[in-house]
């Protein structure tokens, strides 16, 4: 590797202004990126990793932020001295960025092909025909299936993994020297995540570009980076090569990031959080196989709480005037049982039928065939009034708590609203007392009651979503990707909370996630779905130890090892 620094950040400090008060959030950081190198930047939300990378491209919000000191040198040129016009010549051409959320970064009113073509026409001297040929070649290089179809498709017509590939194609279109990848695999299936990591590594080798790879997941970064830099509260606390960071982490925060992720080898009774490590209060108590076996013997000795028998859900595609409607079986002859107090882990790639199955159980979308017995009663045959009453017993915690909370309702009213519908509590005063108690149980205080969802972090909003679900005193809860977008430590806190509440209230969970390490930690029984069918079902530990199906083996092998 050459010694000349391609990107050199020196003593950089950044401040944000809120309500007239200026607060420094990046404190005098220095790091560099060499030519033909991948540098991983790791830290939780609020650590400063995204803010410092946006500063490189001059994308900090102008009115509320400023660089108070330091230099950002690219190829010897200080980027902090450039005006917007100069930046426009650099962005996309010399330094490009892949953003975390492709759906909000891609223009929904333009086809994918046109969006990539636009960048080529802006920066390269190409005709429209040549730009189209180059775009199709880019789609092939990022391994998009059927490049011609994706070229004509709008973003909503392709999968999450395909959208991320379009974003990568757009970023590498002008052969940049530096590619900034900001959380490019968050919320993607574990297999798609592995494919994107592999793709970025291949492209980096082929195009000899340098990559800043930003993530909150240290294990994931270790799969791609040459060196790792760890950020915490606006400071760089540690830098070094991958093996050094993993084998001999110097800083407590780095050790915390490594250990906050559920282990694939042992089951801790409680996951350690960052705070546990920082305050040296880690509980390393292990749940023994004997304790686990005893618990499972007890729950499986009862009658099942929920039994799904030969369930099917068929969707009919809309057809044109002269074409026949096509039937697509999203759930195909699925049968399983869940027992009171159990957590069933449900895994599989996007499109495998997980959410369709949970929607059928929740009676949000009726099954086409088969039975769903809840406490021995087939809920597929219930009247609308009975389904409404059932909502009290069967609840859901959504993936995105912000989208599922009404932005116009205070947190207190959002939790009280369904309680009123189901006549929980004698009056509003009684309900408010219950809500304040619930907020305490999920680790929030009384001040949250009169505040709005936008005032909170992702982890806090997820706790509000949990409080809202358990306010109805349900017996059965579907957790649909409820921790997938959270930082490792926040995730650990929420998983501990779900387990504590399960013990306290004797809840039964279906826990849906694409993160197999998390599912293994949470689940008693594991069910793997593939193309609408059950691929494998059984004890979670047994399946992870010796998976029978090739598909399950593929999912497990895609988990970042760290």
Structure description:
- With 562 residues, the protein is an alpha/beta fold.
- Helices cover 38% and strands 24% of the residues.
- The chain contains 23 helices and 20 strands.
- A six-stranded mixed beta sheet has the order 6-7-8-3-9-10, with helices on both faces. Strands 16-17-18-13-19-20 form a six-stranded mixed beta sheet, with helices on both faces. Strands 2-1-4-5 form a four-stranded antiparallel beta sheet, covered by helices on one side.
- It is globular and about 70 Å long.
Shape: globular
Read across the widest sheet, the strand sequence of neighbours is 6-7-8-3-9-10
Quick one: biggest sheet?
6 strands, mixed
Decide which structural class fits the backbone.
Answer: alpha/beta
Helix content: 25-40%
Using only CA atoms, what is the Rg? 25 Å
**Distance between the amino and carboxyl termini:** 24 Å
Low-confidence stretches: none
| Mean pLDDT score | 90
The oligomeric state is single chain
Percent strand equals: 15-25%
Number of E-type strands? 20
Number of helical elements: 23
Give the arrangement of secondary structure elements:
Layout: E1 7-18, E2 21-33, E3 38-42, H1 49-56, E4 65-74, E5 77-78, H2 84-90, E6 95-98, H3 102-105, H4 112-123, H5 128-141, H6 147-152, H7 160-172, E7 178-182, H8 190-207, E8 210-215, H9 218-222, E9 227-232, E10 235-241, H10 242-247, H11 252-259, H12 274-278, H13 289-299, E11 304-316, E12 327-339, E13 343-347, H14 354-361, E14 369-374, E15 377-378, H15 384-390, E16 394-397, H16 401-404, H17 411-421, H18 428-441, H19 458-470, E17 476-480, H20 488-505, E18 508-512, H21 516-522, E19 525-530, E20 533-539, H22 540-545, H23 550-557
Parallel strand pairs: 3-8, 3-9, 6-7, 7-8, 13-18, 13-19, 16-17, 17-18
Antiparallel strand pairs: 1-2, 1-4, 4-5, 9-10, 11-12, 11-14, 14-15, 19-20
Helix pairs in contact: 4-5, 4-7, 5-7, 7-8, 17-18, 17-19, 18-19, 19-20
